[in-house]
Write a structure and sequence with these properties.
single chain, 341 residues, mainly alpha, 2 domains, two-stranded parallel sheet, globular, ATP binding, protein biosynthesis, ATP-binding
């Protein structure tokens, strides 16, 4: 959920449009035991969580890829012919046993990083207004920006560059840029997408990645759906969160109170600290907890208690928002189920 929380935050900061691709078709291609009815059920639940992150739905376009792809088939053809099979194998390591649909899917996930994929949103009028809104204005006479650079005899290259920088006003191109907040496991997709951008005369998408939250049992362990005690879920009750943190969260503290007071904790491996670094909004309080814990002034139980309070609040707020979102509202806001282009 962290990339979605962060994405909603960025939308508020930049007052920008957000597009969310729901890869229902990829799920079908990856797992032959699934059908679209099952995938739709999972998608509806996941999208409720997305909407509960407080997106501005008037500037958010959520779409099921299996329904939307046909509307941009021409752009897809132009994009997909740029990527070779050898590039896909080198990047994603597909074995021979993969079906052809799954092997050819990565370019479909990359395409929403480019604005022509959404011709109904990023129209020419939208792009013109976007450029106008994002072009800095000079104080006083704005026509100064149009004056040629004054060049004097004997000027060095460095002096010329400084003069140009002083006179210039940065004017964005008539093309919206794309910023992709995601987990860093998505990097291969968008690294390959960036390589294709110049071939289409499009701006390269930018990416910003969040690191994974560690499993409760330790930074070297992995979360698994088959082991619900190794992670905190957005559906957990307060008592479940408290139990999981107290019983399973790996501690970097010492075994006894005396040892902890003498040697302090290793906060680099302490799971409670790692979670607080993500979810505690008060940076001053966070640094104070880390300092005291590292120096032996706080016990493991104190740090876990602080984390429990923070996580219970985060999860309860999210659950309350999610509970107000009906299936009908989800369908109304998703292209493929009810939303129009």
């Amino acid at each position: 959920m962290i990339p979605f929380f962060f994405c909603a935050y960025l939308q508020k900061c930049f007052n920008c449009y957000v597009v969310i691709q729901v890869t229902d078709d990829e799920k079908m291609l990856r797992d032959s035991s699934l059908d679209f009815k099952t995938v739709d059920k999972y998608a509806l639940s996941n999208i409720k969580d997305m909407i509960a992150c407080d997106f501005d739905m008037s500037k958010t376009f959520i779409f099921l890829n299996s329904y939307y792809a046909g509307h941009v088939a021409r752009f897809s053809v132009e994009f997909e012919r740029l990527i070779t099979l050898s590039q896909l194998r080198a990047t994603f390591g597909f074995p021979d046993a993969c079906n052809t649909g799954y092997v050819s899917y990565p370019p479909k996930q990359m395409q929403p990083a480019f604005y022509p994929f959404f011709p109904n949103i990023f129209t020419l009028d939208y792009c013109i207004q976007w450029k106008k809104d994002h072009t800095p204005k000079l104080e006083g006479n704005e026509q100064e920006a149009e004056k040629p650079i004054e060049v004097k005899a004997g000027m060095t290259k460095q002096q010329l560059e400084q003069r140009a920088k002083k006179q210039a006003v940065i004017k964005p191109a008539l093309q919206p840029y794309c910023l992709i907040p995601s987990g860093y496991e998505q990097d291969p997709y968008f690294r390959l997408a960036r390589d294709q951008a110049p071939k289409l005369s499009l701006p390269k998408p930018a990416t910003i990645y969040n690191s994974f939250i560690p499993a409760l049992r330790g930074c070297d362990d992995k979360m698994s759906a088959s082991d619900p005690t190794n992670a905190v879920y957005m559906t957990d009750l307060p008592a479940e969160i408290k139990k999981k943190i107290n019983r399973y969260a790996f501690s970097g503290g010492k075994a006894t109170k005396e040892e902890q007071q003498q040697f302090g904790a290793n906060i680099d491996i302490d799971v409670s600290v790692k979670y607080l670094e993500v979810f505690m909004e008060d940076d001053i309080q966070l640094e104070e907890i880390k300092r005291k814990y590292k120096n032996g002034e706080m016990m493991t139980g104190d740090v876990k208690a602080a984390l429990i309070e923070v996580l219970q609040k985060v999860v309860q707020v999210h659950q309350a928002k999610r509970a107000k979102i009906s299936d009908e509202e989800v369908r109304k806001n998703v292209y493929g189920w009810g939303r129009d282009l």
